[in-house]
Structure formats: structure tokens, C-alpha cells
Amino acid sequence: METLTLAAAARMIREAVKDRSYRATPLGLEVARYCRWKRNEWGATDATMRDYEASLAKLALFHADLELSGLEPPVGTERLRECWDHYWGERSARTRAKVRSIWVDFFDWAVRERGMRGNPARALAAPKRRDVRRDPFSASFVAQVIAAQSYLPDKLGVILILRYALRRAEISRVRFGDFDFERRQLVVAGKGGRVRLIPIVDEAFWRDLGAVELELQPARTDFLLAGRRRLWHGTRYYHSRGLKPRSVHTWWYDRLEEAGLAGDRESGTRVGLHMHRGRHTVATDILRQTGNIVAAQRLLGHLDVKTTVDAYAQFDAADLARVLASMDREEEVAE
User: Fold this and answer.
1) How far apart are CA 313 and CA 217, in angstroms?
2) Which pLDDT does position 193 carry in this prediction?
3) pLDDT for the residue 184
4) Angle at 197 between CA 158 and CA 189, to 5 degrees
5) Nearest one of 41, 39, 34, 54 to 98, comparing CA atoms
6) Is 152 helix (H, G, I), strand (E, B) or coil?
7) Measured between alpha carbons, how far is 236 from 146 in angstroms, rounded to an integer?
8) Fewest C-beta in 10 Å: which of 109, 184, 243, 325?
9) CA 151, CA 212: separation in Å to the nearest integer?
10) Are 223 and 206 in contact (CB under 8 A)?
11) Can you list the domains of the chain with their CATH numbers?
12) Distance between CA 249 and CA 152 in Å, rounded?
């Protein structure tokens, strides 16, 4: 009798997630129902559904013999802990917290619509995240990246990341029809399907965008960031199909390479300059220049200003020193 190796078992699990054969399990059937609700009624994006389904598929495969009733608390909570530890025990607190959040949402749905008695995921303690410092980019870094871009749509994309704090998924979805020349605004489809209006106050941006539209004559549904193919005589751009969110990471480091700030694709040096730091840069700049944290919250699209304050706006010792020095000067003037 042939022995099933750990490698073969891991491969089987990956394939079951990929081809959705996990849905043959009792719990997998419930995950399928939940995914249909989440996509069609709640309005989750494709990117959100990929994350949610991957986490729930592993849960369904880990407990392939159980139905929803087998995961009711308190026993169900312990069974979730087993799965959590098996797949994500060595992962970061951020990743484990994300998985917990997905499970909470799934079992809330199961309680509401499938008659499950209690949510076993709510008893799981949210992992404490370590205090990770995320330094903003310097002003010279921002200027160098923007100035180096030879393809104008790429330059506009870089500006939207470094000056207007768009997320990776958001920038991948920006279409030419989302720009409102009359109101000088961009309509952004944000996280969780929320839509926000971003005022673009840089007139040079609108001049460049006008030049792009005059040259390319894009349809309103064409994407700002183009899919592309490198040929021996240059690069061919396909704005009709755009970039997938996971391809934006490569696009970003290509932009840094063009600016001489990162290695090429084969060098292995493309780390440490993640585009998400652009959001930290924008929030920090707003705080330093205006002190208006609510404006930073609105621009970044956070529901809670605490997220902006705690995780994005960096206020270091030098900033504090300037505030204290300013207070001293005001006292001297008063005397």
C-alpha cells in the first residue's frame, strides 16, 4: 500500500482549494453558500473573495468530516484553534488576525442564515500585533520616482500612490472614466466596495492626463495602468485589460528600477520599498504640514481615525521637538 507523504498531502490541499473540490465536504458546501452571499448581496470584490475563500477552504478541508453543528461553541472554538495553529501558527499576528476576522464574518452569517447556535470564532482572542515602524518615503525619493517615469500613464499612477495614497487594488482599478475633469476629482472604488471622491489639486496632473487622452484616445472603461508586453523593439501597452492587483507589485518595483532606486527583476533586491509606504508618506505629510488628522483619514479612506493615527501618521522626536520649540517661542513673545 502506497504511503501518503506530507508533501503529497500538502499538494492535494492546494489543489482542492484551487479547483474548489473542497466544496464536496459538508462545511465546504456552507462556504460556497456564504461566498455567493458575500459576493452577490454584500458586494465583495474579487480580491476580497480570493482572501476569504482561501482561508475558509482550508478550514473546510481541515474539518472535512464536520458539519456546521460540529463547530458550535464551546467545542467548535477549540476545533478552530486546532486549524488556526496548523495553518497559521507560525504566521504574523497580522495574518492570524485577518483569518480570525474572516471566520467571525462567516460564522456570523451561519448563525443568521443557517441556524447555527453561536459563533465559535468570537471566543478567539485577536492576536496582538507587534509595533512595527513603517517609515514614510522622503521628499527626495518621491520627487525622484515621479520625475523618472518615461511613460506618462505610469507617472500619473505613481503620483496617485505617493501623493494621494491609493492602495494597490485601488490603483489597479482606476479607469479613464473615473476622472472628472470639470470637478477635478477622481472616483475611487475602495476597500470593502466603499467609494470615495479624491480631489486632485495638482494642475500639472490634469495637463498630463489630458495629453494622455489626446494621444491614446482611450475608452472610458480603459485602465490607467496598462497591461504590457516587452518586445525586442520596445514595450507594447494594453490599457483595455489593465493590471491585476497582484501584478501591481511588479509594476511598482519596475518604476523604482526606472528611477535607479531598486534592482532589476533578476537581482533579488526588490524588497523594503513596498508601495503601501506611500500611504504612510501621505498621512505623515498631512499631519506635519497641517495637523489635520481628519483630512488624512478621509483621504486614506479609513472608517476609524484611530487607524490613521496609530498605524499611518508617523510623528517622530524631531516633529515633537519642533512643536515644543514653537511653544517656547510663543511664550517668549507673550512675555
Assistant:
1) 39
2) 73
3) 95
4) 70
5) 54
6) helix
7) 21
8) 325
9) 10
10) no
11) 6-123 (1.10.150), 139-273 (1.10.443.10), 281-334 (no CATH)
12) 19
Q: What confidence score (pLDDT) does residue 143 get?
A: 96
| Integer angstrom CA distances of residue 185 from 44, 156, 180 | 24, 14, 5
Residue 223: strand pairing partners: 175
The residues with which 199 forms a beta bridge, in sequence order, are 185
* Residue positions counted in the chain: 335
Using the Cα atoms of residue 37, residue 38, residue 42 and residue 46 in order, give the sign of their dihedral. negative
Residue type, position 139, single letter: A
Give the Cβ contact number of residue 171 at 10 Å.
Answer: 25
Q: Which of 9-23, 152-166, 181-195 is predicted with the least confidence, judged by mean pLDDT?
A: 9-23
Closest Cα to residue 30, out of 108, 145, 100, 93?
A: 108
Check if the beta carbon of residue 96 is closer than 8 Å to that of residue 127: yes
Q: What is the pTM of this model?
A: 0.67
| Grid cell digits, residue 246 | 497582484
Q: Residue 175 gets which letter from DSSP?
A: B
For the stretch 30-72, pLDDT in tens is 999 999 999 898 888 787 888 899 899 999 989 989 999 999 9
Residue 223, SS3 per DSSP? strand
323 grid coordinates? 512643536
Give every CB contact of residue 242 below 8 A, 6+ residues apart in sequence: 172, 173, 222, 223, 224, 225, 226, 227
Predicted local distance difference test score (pLDDT) of residue 36 = 93
Taking only the tens place, the pLDDT of each residue in 127-169 is: 766 555 668 899 999 999 999 999 999 999 999 999 999 999 8
DSSP letter at 303? S
Per-residue pLDDT tens for 253-263?
999 999 998 87
CA distances from 200 to 92, 142, 158, 184, 203 (A): 36, 17, 13, 6, 8
In the chain the beta strands, taken as DSSP E runs, fall at 179-180, 185-189, 195-199, 227-231, 234-238
Inter-residue contact 329 to 219 (CB < 8 Å)? no
